[in-house]
């Protein structure tokens, strides 16, 4: 008898746990996961794969990030189909760090820290508007 109840409780808890799971995740402020850079060094150049797709998930233009990245790394970049070619050898870690800085400056809302933001050019000032909390803030222009 006690065995039956143990089993019953266990199954019940399990199915309850399972059905509650999606709600728990949705209620929780799930941490924004920073996408991972996929790059490789070949000779004297560095290739970044699928950067456009990665930037699409952030609702940012590949060209905007590349401006930032080439400033950070002090190099130049060409886009060739799905690949970006950087002059010189740059470790994946360096590029990843630059992406993280970019996200901090140009993607995450300073008010609520969510990534649901859009960049808008207002005259000479670039504004970031948050779709989650409605905040707007000026962001540093890229040269
Ligand atoms: Zn916000």
What topology emerges from the helices and strands here?
Elements: H1 2-27, E1 38-42, E2 45-49, H2 51-57, H3 62-73, E3 77-80, E4 83-87, H4 92-106, E5 117-122, E6 125-130, E7 136-139
Antiparallel strand pairs: 1-2, 2-4, 3-4, 5-6, 6-7
Helix pairs in contact: 3-4
This protein binds zinc ion.
Key features of this structure:
143 residues, alpha+beta, Alpha-Beta Plaits, four-stranded antiparallel β-sheet, three-stranded antiparallel β-sheet, binds zinc ion
What portion of the residues fall into strands of 2 or more residues? 15-25%
Q: In CATH terms, what is the fold-level topology of the largest domain?
A: Alpha-Beta Plaits
Tally of distinct domains: 2
Order of strands across the main sheet: 1-2-4-3
Helix content: 40-55%
Instruction: Report the order of strands and helices.
Output: HEEHHEEHEEE
Summarize the main sheet.
4 strands, antiparallel
Please tell me the CATH architecture of the largest domain by its name: 2-Layer Sandwich
Question: Number of helical segments?
Answer: 4
CATH class of the largest domain: Alpha Beta
Average residue pLDDT: 86
The residue ranges in which pLDDT falls below 50 over 5 or more consecutive positions are 19-27
Radius of gyration based on Cα positions:
22 Å
Q: What separation lies between the terminal Cα atoms? A: 75 Å
Structural class: alpha+beta
Spell out which ligands are present: zinc ion
User: Shape, please?
Assistant: globular
- Number of strand elements: 7
